[in-house]
Write a structure and sequence with these properties.
By secondary structure, the chain is an alpha/beta fold. 36% of the residues lie in helices and 23% in strands.
Length: 190
């Protein structure tokens, strides 16, 4: 069993913001996988495909860890079976960076998952949504929608992230890293 968790914030106010790139990629993975939606009482939305769970915690980004942990415990999954999809302002728009583990790098969603699991040894796919313009408030920037002129790149990045996540589930982290890490123009685009 593999679990792909896309992190974001609930509500229409946040639906197309930079901080919801994880949810956008999860939606694309859901469409590509043919997963069936299940009812789930663990504060999230869940879909299942062959040996794969797609999970959207429905709390705020900085509280994503406990719902992810509850799902993993219910399914008997370990950290090596988890991939978390998140935005990253330290990566240029369109860049993907998949890693088998590592620090949260200041990302509150990743920090929440690390804290809940008690480890940073789970895969994470960071999607570049930055950088934050000089002098701009970081929180306001990530909670604002993408600019109109960025939308084509965002659609392509989200599709590539979904493909990378499904590749991770099918072929492993190394194969997905080799195929998808890097700027948008250097990788496959769906």
């Amino acid at each position: 069993m593999k679990i792909i968790a896309g992190l974001g914030n609930p509500g229409s106010r946040y639906s197309r913001t930079r901080h919801n790139a994880g949810w956008m990629a999860l939606d694309a993975a859901f469409r590509r996988s043919g997963a069936c939606v299940e009812r789930y009482r663990g504060n999230g939305e869940l879909a299942r495909a062959d040996g794969l769970l797609l999970f959207r915690p429905l709390g705020y980004m900085n509280r994503s860890g406990p719902p992810v942990l509850r799902l993993m415990e219910r399914e008997g999954a370990g950290p090596e079976q988890l991939l978390v999809l998140v935005d990253d302002v330290n990566l240029t728009l369109g860049t993907l960076r998949l890693r088998p583990g590592g620090s949260s790098g200041g990302h509150n969603g990743l920090a929440s998952v690390e804290h809940a699991l008690g480890t940073d040894r789970f895969a994470r796919l960071r999607m570049g949504v930055g950088p934050c313009p000089p002098g701009a408030d970081l929180a306001q920037y990530v909670l604002s929608p993408f600019y109109e002129e960025e939308r084509d790149v965002v659609v392509r990045m989200v599709g590539r992230a979904a493909d990378a996540a499904l590749c991770w589930a099918a072929e492993g982290v190394e194969a997905a890293m080799n195929k998808f890490n890097g700027p948008l123009e250097n990788g496959p685009v769906s």
